[in-house]
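Researcher: Structure prediction, please.
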Amino acid sequence: MESGVSGGESGLATPIGVARLSKMMFDGQDLTPLWRELIGRYVYKRDDVAALMDLAVVEQLFGNLEDGLARQAEALELCRVYASPHAGAAPRLRLLALAAPGDIGTNTPLEFLLEGAEIALTTLFIVPGLPLPEPLPEHDLAFVAVGESDANSSVLAEIEQLLMRWPRPVLNRPDRIRQLSRERLFALLDGAPGLVMPMTLRVDRTSLQRLGAGTVAIADVLPDGAFPVIVRPVDSHGGRGLAKLDTPAATTAYLEERREMEFYLSRFVDYSGGDGLFRKYRVVFIDGAPYACHMAIADQWMIYYLNADMKGSAAKRDEEARFMAEFDDSFARRHRAALGAVAARIGLDYFGIDCAETKDGRLLLFEADIAMIVHAMDSPVIFPYKPVQMRKVFDAFCAMLRRKSERALAASA
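Model: Predicted structure follows.
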């Protein structure tokens, strides 16, 4: 297949993009021939930035993160503005994403959210210290797509300065994104009605070593803590380094396997249901309104959609289908106060949460982020209920963009 072009109708480099490449991989397509083609273009035409960006994604999909980031860095030295394919010849709206260099999970997955929309997406990668391209790409709205992390702190700071004189309306302001760090989020949401979020503190390696050695008590490190506790390296995602520590000795064993210097620590909450199974939900907020994205059911507390084996269980899929179909009248109504407080206090135009329900029926919040993966890649044969729900999410997102743009135009008239 053709692997992306150096310049489309917009004149911008137009890679295949992360959404389409991820879908190909998800469907089991062998990307090796494409990888070989991209490598050839990399070797013989080093300024083919579209090929470089696609190669960066394919390498990551193959598990070669270091190589993928290296190819991305080479591309960004040459060009920091990229177009994404869009439906239709004449887009109804032009969206400019302000993004950070990094892996696939660094920025809001806008290509997925805009699937099938007549919206032209252009991505401008912000590299601190480098001037903006002149002129800026034409756009009706800008969207800060940079997820909260230590690695992205300087990028968010740079964007915050740039937005002081930005010529178009901007969604997802950086100061709001900063609040999504695990320790700040607890402070922001503490006391919200119907919500449980355990205190989360950032601790250094030395503090955990002392905890493991028994020279300090858990309450000295985590005021509301008691074993078991949950630990994870700072800036880790996807379960990397996530563990439940049942005793101080387990802390020592954990550190023997980890090299990181800083970690997040919080108390463990048993959110298993009456049947012994754990249920974790992903919900996104679009202009303050919650939308169901998926439900994972497993016999272990550390749940991810893939390890829950939803594909292999008709009973689990039936329950997820009911969750989606009845979301507005069931889950969202049951947790209306908590969800409303989350939306109001976080105050972003778009973000997602991973959550569960406690044994006493309250909403248990694990994390909030603007870069959570939201997609419609699952087989419609196995998951026939998902296309309708995800189209509802995507349509709501696009409607928000149009609404924000129209309001800005009306205000400036």
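Model: The chain has a mean pLDDT of 93.
Researcher: Thanks, that helps.
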